[in-house]
Write a structure and sequence with these properties.
CATH architecture: 4-Layer Sandwich
CATH superfamily: Ribonuclease Z/Hydroxyacylglutathione hydrolase-like
CATH class: Alpha Beta
Number of domains: 1
Largest sheet: 7 strands, mixed
Bound molecules: fe (ii) ion
Distance between the termini: 18 Å
Helix content: 25-40%
Shape: globular
Strand order of the largest sheet: 1-2-3-4-5-6-7
Strand content: 15-25%
Oligomer: single chain
Number of strands: 15
Organism: Thecamonas trahens ATCC 50062
Keywords: Membrane, Transmembrane, Transmembrane helix
Protein name: Metallo-beta-lactamase domain-containing protein
């Protein structure tokens, strides 16, 4: 195990402890982002908040990305919007509730990133049957898969038409995978500090476990943002969407910065400081053992 990964473990442990202390939060109600797009914020098993994105296509068909916890109120709210046609498991890390939603909506096709289907199916027991890139384009959703150096889990970027934003001009939204780019907010800390940071860009823990080549990651994300000048809503697996003419430029600025982030300046909580010290101690012990000091 690498020293970097070893040092990341206490952050995750502290996140789980925090979750055990504060408990599971129920899903939020669906909030409308555009005429055909909704967002639900749910609590992941690790304790952090994660987004479920709902997109309505062809007037009555729903595509669900990164489903939230299987709660009756959320099921009912989704059913009121249309017919669930596709459930997208966006990443090997966002699989917790996929099986429950697939059982609730057996007519839906369950898809995931093509290169990761076996991993998601066998390790996470989610019944994915097709690649997202083979199913979603027919519904008007473009899919681009990150190359392996940019994202080990081969997360995808989804781009689709939106309606009802303002002047009726054609515009589109872009969903940047699950963890590919995040927009953690203060209400999601201290977990945001523990496994990432508060702000916009590349999360710290994901940088270690999910992004083999940070330069390749930046190139891939920037290519997607620059290829779609009609995108004025950028969405994330964590954190609120960024809406408006400056949305792409804001994300471009974060991704292309030296650290891949625009980070909020906020003092770390005691729990975070404790976890960081524990991580440092753990890493020193790992190094000492590696060099046979004891
Ligand atoms: Fe995530």
């Amino acid at each position: 195990m690498s020293v970097a990964l070893t040092m990341a473990i206490p952050f995750v442990i502290a996140g789980v402890v925090k979750h055990k202390i504060t408990g599971h939060k129920p899903n939020t109600e669906l909030s409308q982002v555009a005429g055909n797009v909704w967002l639900c914020k749910g609590c992941a098993p690790l304790g952090c908040l994660a987004n479920m994105t709902v997109v309505r296509v062809n007037e009555n068909q729903l595509v669900l990305f990164s489903v939230a916890a299987a709660e009756d109120a959320t099921f009912a709210a989704v059913e009121a919007l249309g017919e669930v046609a596709v459930i997208v498991v966006t990443s090997e890390h966002h699989t917790s509730y996929g099986a429950a939603w697939a059982a609730r909506f057996p007519e839906a096709v369950v898809v995931g990133p093509g290169p990761m289907l076996d991993v998601i199916r066998e390790r996470e027991h989610v019944p994915v049957t097709a690649a997202a890139e083979d199913v979603l384009p027919a519904l008007g959703i473009d899919v681009v898969t990150a190359p392996e150096p940019a994202c080990k889990g081969r997360e995808q970027v989804y781009t689709f038409a939106i309606d009802g934003l303002d002047d009726g001009a054609a515009s589109r939204a872009m969903l940047l995978g699950s963890d590919l780019v995040v927009n953690w907010q203060a209400d999601e800390t201290p977990f945001a500090d523990l496994c990432g940071f508060e702000g916009l860009g590349r999360a710290r823990l994901f940088s270690v476990i999910g992004i083999p080549d940070h330069a390749a990651w930046a190139r891939f994300v920037l290519d997607q943002l620059e290829a779609h000048d009609d995108v004025d809503v950028v969405m994330f697996g964590h954190g609120p969407p960024i809406v408006g003419d400056d949305a792409r430029a804001t994300v471009v600025a974060a991704v292309s910065s030296p650290t891949g982030q625009i980070r909020a300046n906020r003092a770390s909580t005691f729990l975070v400081q404790f976890a960081m010290l524990a991580g440092l101690a753990w890493g020193c012990i790992a190094l000492a053992r590696r060099f046979g000091l004891f």
